Amino acid sequence: MRREMLISVAVGVTLVTVAAVAVLWFNRGSRLILDVQIQKVRTQALEEQASAMVIDFRVFNPADYLYQVRKVDVTLDIGGKTAEGIVIADVDAKRLMEYYPALSPKYNDTLRMREKLKPRQSLDRMVAVRFELPESMVNSRRSLTLRIEEVDGPVPTVIVHPPAGAR
């Protein structure tokens, strides 16, 4: 009797495992997430206590649904403290890159609010950010966090350890 019970439990566990895997497999495209790879990071001192950062990245929407961007945030971890950046508008980013040759050329379009990423679409984008920190502190960051918030709420976060690109 004990052997029959073990066989029944093993069959039951196997069926539950197969069912769970099937549910996860068939729903894999229903999660609104983004795969983001940071390609290049460039920094430039603007003033003694202010710096600009240009982040080029590739974003991929693996979901079966449209992903519409609400906002983009960039934060730095500098010695255990968090520094939040101010995102620079596309028009101002173009001027900034024209004025500071170290930030040029502009490889990609800026990721904008209300931009739509179609299902299974991959795009190359950039974001320019201002930090009220000297360039030396920005370059000594431990990590860079890029948050892209969706209109309906999910917030995929990309954390880069160690910092990518120029120092």
Q: What do you see in this structure?
A:
The protein has 167 residues and is α+β, with helices and mostly antiparallel strands. The protein has helices spanning 2-26, 90-99, 135-139; strands at residues 35-47, 50-60, 67-78, 81-84, 86-88, 109-110, 116-117, 122-131, 143-150, 157-160. The strands form 2 sheets. Strands 1, 2, 5, 6 and 8 form a 5-stranded mixed beta sheet that branches. The chain starts with a helix and ends in a 7-residue tail after the last strand.
Low-confidence stretches: none
Distance between the termini: 69 Å
Give the quaternary arrangement of the chains: single chain
Largest sheet: 5 strands, mixed
* Helical content band: 10-25%
Give helix and strand order, one letter per element, not per position: HEEEEEHEEEHEE
What structural class do the secondary elements suggest? alpha+beta
| Gross morphology | elongated
Mean pLDDT: 86
What proportion strand? 35-45%
Write the layout of secondary structure elements.
Blueprint: H1 2-26, E1 35-47, E2 50-60, E3 67-78, E4 81-84, E5 86-88, H2 90-99, E6 109-110, E7 116-117, E8 122-131, H3 135-139, E9 143-150, E10 157-160
Parallel strand pairs: 6-8
Antiparallel strand pairs: 1-2, 2-8, 3-4, 3-7, 3-9, 5-8, 9-10
Quick structural gist:
The chain is an alpha+beta fold and 167 residues long. The chain has helices spanning 2-26, 90-99, 135-139, and strands at residues 35-47, 50-60, 67-78, 81-84, 86-88, 109-110, 116-117, 122-131, 143-150, 157-160.
